[in-house]
Amino acid sequence: MSLGMGRRAGYGRGQPAAAPQVRRHFGNSAELRRYVRETFGPEVLLGFSRGKDAIAAWIAMDSQWDRIVPVYHYLIPGLEFEEESLTYFEKAFGSKIIRLPAPATYRMLRNLTFQAPENCSIVEGFNLPTYAYSDLWDHVRQLARASGVADRVRICVDVPYAESLAVQSRSDVLLLLMWDTPEEA
Q: Which end of the chain has fewer CB atoms surrounding its CB within 10 Å, N or C?
Protein backbone atom coordinates (compact mmCIF):
# COMPACT_ATOMS: atom_id res chain seq x y z
CA MET A 1 0.00 0.00 0.00
CA SER A 2 1.26 3.42 -0.87
CA LEU A 3 -0.12 6.62 0.50
CA GLY A 4 0.66 9.88 -1.23
CA MET A 5 0.71 12.82 1.11
CA GLY A 6 1.45 16.45 0.49
CA ARG A 7 0.17 20.01 0.88
CA ARG A 8 -2.69 21.21 -1.26
CA ALA A 9 -3.34 24.86 -1.94
CA GLY A 10 -5.71 26.37 0.60
CA TYR A 11 -5.12 23.85 3.37
CA GLY A 12 -2.89 24.44 6.37
CA ARG A 13 -1.58 22.11 9.03
CA GLY A 14 -4.17 20.45 11.19
CA GLN A 15 -7.12 21.52 9.04
CA PRO A 16 -9.21 18.67 7.64
CA ALA A 17 -9.26 18.76 3.87
CA ALA A 18 -12.20 17.82 1.72
CA ALA A 19 -11.49 14.64 -0.19
CA PRO A 20 -10.36 15.54 -3.70
CA GLN A 21 -11.84 14.05 -6.82
CA VAL A 22 -9.08 11.57 -7.62
CA ARG A 23 -8.54 10.35 -11.13
CA ARG A 24 -8.63 6.53 -11.17
CA HIS A 25 -7.29 5.40 -14.57
CA PHE A 26 -3.83 6.00 -16.03
CA GLY A 27 -1.95 4.84 -19.11
CA ASN A 28 1.05 3.66 -17.09
CA SER A 29 2.65 3.95 -13.66
CA ALA A 30 4.76 6.99 -14.64
CA GLU A 31 1.58 8.89 -15.52
CA LEU A 32 0.04 7.89 -12.17
CA ARG A 33 3.12 9.01 -10.21
CA ARG A 34 3.22 12.33 -12.07
CA TYR A 35 -0.47 12.93 -11.33
CA VAL A 36 -0.10 12.13 -7.61
CA ARG A 37 2.96 14.39 -7.30
CA GLU A 38 1.19 17.30 -9.05
CA THR A 39 -2.02 16.82 -7.04
CA PHE A 40 -0.65 16.10 -3.57
CA GLY A 41 2.84 17.55 -3.41
CA PRO A 42 6.47 16.56 -2.98
CA GLU A 43 6.16 14.26 0.05
CA VAL A 44 4.73 10.76 0.27
CA LEU A 45 4.11 8.04 2.86
CA LEU A 46 5.00 4.52 1.74
CA GLY A 47 3.68 1.38 3.42
CA PHE A 48 6.93 -0.61 3.39
CA SER A 49 6.66 -4.38 3.92
CA ARG A 50 10.24 -5.23 2.84
CA GLY A 51 8.72 -7.18 -0.09
CA LYS A 52 9.49 -6.87 -3.78
CA ASP A 53 6.44 -4.68 -4.47
CA ALA A 54 7.34 -2.20 -1.73
CA ILE A 55 10.97 -2.05 -2.90
CA ALA A 56 9.89 -1.53 -6.52
CA ALA A 57 7.45 1.18 -5.43
CA TRP A 58 10.20 2.97 -3.47
CA ILE A 59 12.59 2.81 -6.42
CA ALA A 60 9.91 4.07 -8.82
CA MET A 61 8.90 6.88 -6.46
CA ASP A 62 12.43 7.92 -5.51
CA SER A 63 13.01 10.14 -8.54
CA GLN A 64 9.70 11.97 -8.32
CA TRP A 65 9.22 12.84 -4.64
CA ASP A 66 11.40 15.08 -2.53
CA ARG A 67 10.72 13.07 0.60
CA ILE A 68 9.51 9.49 1.00
CA VAL A 69 8.52 8.45 4.52
CA PRO A 70 8.47 4.63 4.70
CA VAL A 71 6.43 2.94 7.43
CA TYR A 72 6.92 -0.70 8.48
CA HIS A 73 4.38 -2.62 10.61
CA TYR A 74 6.01 -5.38 12.65
CA LEU A 75 4.33 -8.38 14.22
CA ILE A 76 7.05 -8.99 16.80
CA PRO A 77 9.32 -6.06 17.67
CA GLY A 78 13.06 -6.29 17.24
CA LEU A 79 13.38 -9.52 15.26
CA GLU A 80 17.00 -9.64 14.15
CA PHE A 81 16.41 -10.60 10.52
CA GLU A 82 13.76 -7.87 10.11
CA GLU A 83 15.96 -5.23 11.74
CA GLU A 84 18.92 -6.24 9.55
CA SER A 85 16.87 -5.84 6.37
CA LEU A 86 15.28 -2.57 7.55
CA THR A 87 18.73 -1.20 8.38
CA TYR A 88 19.95 -2.31 4.95
CA PHE A 89 17.09 -0.47 3.21
CA GLU A 90 17.59 2.63 5.38
CA LYS A 91 21.22 2.76 4.25
CA ALA A 92 20.43 1.92 0.63
CA PHE A 93 17.71 4.56 0.29
CA GLY A 94 19.10 7.08 2.78
CA SER A 95 15.86 7.36 4.74
CA LYS A 96 14.76 6.34 8.23
CA ILE A 97 11.95 3.75 8.24
CA ILE A 98 9.23 4.33 10.84
CA ARG A 99 8.47 1.11 12.76
CA LEU A 100 4.99 0.59 14.21
CA PRO A 101 3.23 -2.49 15.61
CA ALA A 102 0.76 -4.19 13.28
CA PRO A 103 -2.81 -4.53 14.55
CA ALA A 104 -2.19 -8.30 14.77
CA THR A 105 0.49 -7.64 17.41
CA TYR A 106 -2.14 -6.32 19.82
CA ARG A 107 -4.66 -8.99 18.81
CA MET A 108 -2.14 -11.77 19.50
CA LEU A 109 -1.26 -10.30 22.89
CA ARG A 110 -4.93 -9.82 23.86
CA ASN A 111 -5.64 -13.44 22.84
CA LEU A 112 -2.55 -14.61 24.77
CA THR A 113 -1.13 -16.20 21.61
CA PHE A 114 2.27 -17.80 22.24
CA GLN A 115 2.26 -16.61 25.87
CA ALA A 116 3.66 -18.66 28.70
CA PRO A 117 1.02 -19.31 31.39
CA GLU A 118 2.91 -17.20 33.93
CA ASN A 119 2.70 -14.17 31.57
CA CYS A 120 -1.06 -14.29 31.00
CA SER A 121 -2.13 -12.25 34.04
CA ILE A 122 0.53 -9.63 33.25
CA VAL A 123 -0.58 -9.26 29.62
CA GLU A 124 -4.26 -9.17 30.61
CA GLY A 125 -3.43 -6.41 33.11
CA PHE A 126 -2.37 -4.11 30.27
CA ASN A 127 -5.92 -3.95 28.86
CA LEU A 128 -4.51 -3.54 25.35
CA PRO A 129 -6.67 -1.62 22.88
CA THR A 130 -8.02 -2.98 19.60
CA TYR A 131 -6.38 -1.36 16.58
CA ALA A 132 -7.05 -1.50 12.86
CA TYR A 133 -4.58 -0.44 10.16
CA SER A 134 -6.64 2.71 9.66
CA ASP A 135 -5.94 3.67 13.30
CA LEU A 136 -2.22 3.19 12.81
CA TRP A 137 -2.21 5.16 9.56
CA ASP A 138 -4.13 7.96 11.34
CA HIS A 139 -1.24 8.05 13.83
CA VAL A 140 1.33 8.10 11.02
CA ARG A 141 -0.54 10.94 9.31
CA GLN A 142 -0.49 12.92 12.58
CA LEU A 143 3.26 12.42 12.78
CA ALA A 144 3.62 13.39 9.13
CA ARG A 145 1.56 16.56 9.56
CA ALA A 146 3.78 17.56 12.49
CA SER A 147 6.67 17.31 10.01
CA GLY A 148 4.91 19.47 7.42
CA VAL A 149 3.18 16.75 5.40
CA ALA A 150 -0.61 16.83 5.07
CA ASP A 151 -3.46 15.12 3.21
CA ARG A 152 -3.32 11.80 1.40
CA VAL A 153 -4.38 9.75 -1.58
CA ARG A 154 -4.44 5.98 -1.73
CA ILE A 155 -2.58 4.84 -4.82
CA CYS A 156 -3.41 1.15 -4.75
CA VAL A 157 -5.67 -1.18 -2.85
CA ASP A 158 -4.25 -4.04 -0.81
CA VAL A 159 -5.15 -7.52 -1.98
CA PRO A 160 -5.59 -9.91 0.94
CA TYR A 161 -2.75 -12.41 0.84
CA ALA A 162 -4.99 -15.49 1.06
CA GLU A 163 -7.12 -14.18 -1.82
CA SER A 164 -3.99 -13.46 -3.85
CA LEU A 165 -2.70 -17.01 -3.28
CA ALA A 166 -6.08 -18.48 -4.26
CA VAL A 167 -6.11 -16.51 -7.52
CA GLN A 168 -2.48 -17.40 -8.25
CA SER A 169 -3.05 -21.10 -7.58
CA ARG A 170 -5.87 -21.15 -10.17
CA SER A 171 -3.72 -19.40 -12.79
CA ASP A 172 -2.03 -21.20 -15.67
CA VAL A 173 0.66 -18.49 -15.81
CA LEU A 174 1.84 -16.36 -12.91
CA LEU A 175 2.89 -12.89 -14.03
CA LEU A 176 5.08 -11.41 -11.32
CA LEU A 177 5.89 -8.03 -12.83
CA MET A 178 4.96 -6.24 -16.03
CA TRP A 179 6.57 -3.01 -17.20
CA ASP A 180 4.34 -1.38 -19.75
CA THR A 181 6.77 1.25 -21.01
CA PRO A 182 10.43 0.77 -21.99
CA GLU A 183 11.63 3.82 -20.03
CA GLU A 184 10.38 2.23 -16.79
CA ALA A 185 12.28 -1.03 -17.30
A: C
Residues 147, 143: Cα–Cα separation, whole Å = 7
3-state secondary structure of 91: helix
Q: Do residues 83 and 99 make contact, with C-beta atoms less than 8 angstroms apart?
A: no
Instruction: Answer whether 17's CB lies under 8 Å from 41's CB.
Output: no
> Rounded CA gap, 27 and 33, in Å?
11
Q: Pick the closest to residue 152 from 163, 140, 161, 162 (CA basis).
A: 140
3-state secondary structure of 163: helix
Amino acid at 75: L
- How much is the average pLDDT of 151-163? 51
Question: SS3 of 154, please?
Answer: strand
Q: How far apart are CA 10 and CA 112, in angstroms?
A: 48
pLDDT digits (tens, 9 = 90+) for 95-130: 999 898 888 888 888 899 989 999 999 999 988 888
* pLDDT band of 141, cuts 50, 70, 90: confident
DSSP letter at 101 equals E
* Predicted TM-score of the model (pTM): 0.60
